[in-house]
Write a structure and sequence with these properties.
single chain; alpha/beta; six-stranded mixed beta sheet
């Protein structure tokens, strides 16, 4: 089954045309390889208000995955996690924890992951390599998570045993 995905590139310099977005095409390629249908790619400037506005628009009536790239570090304008926290209804800390573990620099990430309606939002770094590493670390569980959000009676992956009907 194909799942829908949307990508948000958070970068003042990409919005201004001062640099090309490199992470977005790589994220799109990897999602398509994982059988996601990328239905939207948006580039937005850094900051809480701008990212919050775009995320609210993208999750409206949407079921699937929203991947942000950029704004997760320590720079004063890196505010994607703050905007994400304004949108999500429930955090999914396991996703962001695993993403931080893929690279020693992950310890500098403030990325968040969470649920809003039938969507999962994950914050990836703006670095193209970092974004792909982080996405790759969680890609295997995202289809199952989206099925669960949709209320599907999806069995847990075989290696964990059980099904949603028998789990707590």
């Amino acid at each position: 089954m194909k799942f829908a995905a949307k990508i948000v590139i958070v970068s003042d310099s990409a919005v201004a045309g001062a640099r090309a977005d490199v992470a977005g095409p790589l994220i799109r390629k990897r999602l398509v390889e994982a059988d996601f249908d990328v239905v939207d790619v948006v580039i937005v400037g850094d900051g809480v208000a701008s990212v919050e506005r775009v995320l609210r628009e993208l999750v409206q009536g949407f079921s699937g995955l929203v991947v942000t790239s950029g704004g997760t570090g320590f720079s004063p304008r890196d505010l994607t996690p703050e905007a994400t926290l304004r949108i999500i209804e429930r955090e999914a800390p396991g996703l962001s924890e695993v993403m931080r573990q893929v690279n020693p620099l992950g310890r500098l990430s403030r990325a968040r992951a969470g649920i809003v309606g039938h969507c999962i939002i994950v914050n990836c770094p703006g670095s193209p390599n970092g974004a792909i590493e982080c996405l790759e670390s969680i890609l295997d569980v995202l289809p199952h998570a989206i099925e669960l959000l949709r209320g599907a009676d999806a069995p847990h992956p075989p290696e964990t045993g059980g099904s949603t009907m028998t789990s707590s």
